[in-house]
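S.,

Sequence below, as promised.
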Amino acid sequence: MKTDYEIIQDEAQYESLMEEILDIMNKGEANLSTAESEKLLKMALAAQAYEKEHHHDTNMQKAEA
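The prediction came back faster than expected:
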């Protein structure tokens, strides 16, 4: 089953994606296949976009404290 990481719809999907990212990262960069590395990049970009859209204010408040 192919998953579309382009747009994360909600916090639950974001949390699930972050768990999947952690699982892949725990393998270690040297142990990833090309496909896993590409998948990780797509997931990271999707997570980053979601964070920028939904967590930006929270991150700014922490930085200002």
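The first helix runs from residue 11 to 25.

Coffee later?
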